[in-house]
Amino acid sequence: MKWFLHKLAMMFGADPRRPSADEETDAARAMKALKKTPDEVAKRKALIADEHENPQFSHKWRNLRWVSIIVINALFVISFAWDVQLVEGSMSASRFLGFHMADPNAALQVMLAFKEVMLNLVIGTVTVIALWWIVGGRAFCAWACPYHLLAEWAEAIHLFLARRGWVKDHPFHRGLRLVLWVIFMILAFATGYTVFEYINPVGIVSRALIYGPTVAIIWVIFLLGVEIFFSRRFWCRYVCPIGLTYGITGAVAPIQIKYDLEKCLHEGECRAVCLVPHVLEITKMGYAQDEVEFIGPDCTRCGLCVDVCPQNALSFAVRGLDKII
Amino acid sequence: MSKTADTPKKPRLTRRELERRRMLIRTMALGVAAVSAGLIGWYPVYKKVFDRLRPPGALDEDEFLAACIKCGQCVQVCPVEAIKLADGDEGYGLGVPYIDARAQACDFSCDAVQCVLACPTGALSHLIAKKEEVTMGFARLARPEACLAMKGLGFTGLARGDDFPGLLRYEEIDRWEPQPVASHPYELEICDLCVRECPIEGAITLEPLSIDYQDKRRVPTIHKSCVGCGTCEMICPAEPAAIVIDTELALEASA
């Protein structure tokens, strides 16, 4: 429990740390001790050498995800463009085959601004929360958010330039996201206007896709520019309150990324590709709490770590499924 | 002894501490920048810098702005596509719907205020069920000198020229399919377009300018039942329109 609370705190900006002696399970302690034996070290070195000789790449989850983002957003676009009315509206609120859907963050802001609980929004929000809770809260970011896809491409450019030493990543404090979340909620209440929506790239991109290009897209291009030249994935990592709302939504979601300490060679490939590397701190030598554990609630279930891990130490899992079967 | 020797030397920061300090300063700057950027978008809305006609059923401007979730479902159901979403540089609230009546008025082609039914938040109030209950604004003869009826003139041709893309319901042609205004030429002895095309019964009438029955001049007179849909403003052949809609916002400001 305490370890889970630590993971939750990490989502709100706390620094990652090792588990304390009483948090660490006996199995994890034994496994860590075993991994330090000369035999195991030699074995690990051999495996790593083998990996370097036979590098394997997979983009399975990434490709699936890109298809998902494109299909979801295309449904919005064609629903209006061809008037087929599958998903009417945009990312902030819609009707899917007539059922209300609402972005929890936007709905909360609107209710704070309007100071009234709107039934349709509550219905829509509950539906959306229930759906995204199953797949893991921030799965919204990786599997539906149109800005996420653009930001991934910007990130690829950033990494390309960074490898050549032309740009450098300037990290921010992750706690900023919570601070901004609170500030924008207070602003919505105090001003009676959803102030955040003016700078919300998710809404801007979604509306531009559906209703045609807008001047506001310049803001999104600016944000992507900052991500390319100044700070890797800064909007998703340090700013976006929608991501945090979904993170809270999926804090105890059924679908999780499972980490298997035994298989892990502690190379850090997963942390290098991750949008929220703090959730993968447990893959550092000595940082795991249990032999098998789920990574933190801030995880977007993007599957990049699953794709990149050469030892399959990270995998998609359904919480408690093994206990049921 | 010199003074500097007395004061304890500031401990030199390690590289790591320096990095962290820079990171925290950067973070504060980003926080301030993000909040400021949001407030920039809010300011013109708060100050009501720009005048705007909101879709039928819209709550009072302040409440409407608070309640709108900016999803555009009202845009999607409008048969004449009168509703547009404001852009970031327009100051009407990014993504908030408005109507530019001169370009495309709300002519109630949908009958039952579809946009109101589509609105998931009630920013377009669900209390409204009929077009007669709408209060978007109020028509006003702003340029009487340009009004053809005021000059006793008729009108022949296309109301807004052949390249005008606007749509209007011509019930006698098709009850359900709004027709391009550019496909519908008129031949009128006295121009009464604003009266003829007004979707609200008795909202506007032409009254004689004088008691002389040979005097053809007429005054478009707007009555209380006007809902401010803007059809008269769209159809007015004078350029710019002789008749315009004062928005609820403008009416509030002048009251």
Could you walk me through the main structural features you see in this protein, from its secondary elements to its overall organization?
The complex is a heterodimer of chains A (325) and B (255). Chain A has helices spanning 2-11, 26-36, 38-53, 60-81, 104-114, 119-135, 139-143, 146-163, 176-191, 201-211, 217-229, 234-239, 241-249, 269-273, 304-308, 321-324, and strands spanning 87-90, 93-96, 99-102, 255-260, 292-294, 314-318. By secondary structure, chain A is mainly α. In chain A, the strands form two sheets. In chain A, strands 1-2-3 form a three-stranded antiparallel β-sheet. The radius of gyration of chain A is 21 Å and the shape is globular. The model of chain A has no long low-confidence stretch (mean pLDDT 93). Chain B has one domain. Chain B contains eight helices and ten strands. In chain B, the strands form five sheets. Chain B has a two-stranded antiparallel ribbon. Chain B has a two-stranded antiparallel ribbon with strand order 3-10. A two-stranded antiparallel ribbon of chain B has the order 4-7. Classes of the chains: A mainly alpha (325), B alpha+beta (255). Chains A and B meet through β1, β2, α5, α6 and α9 of A and α2, α3 and α4 of B.
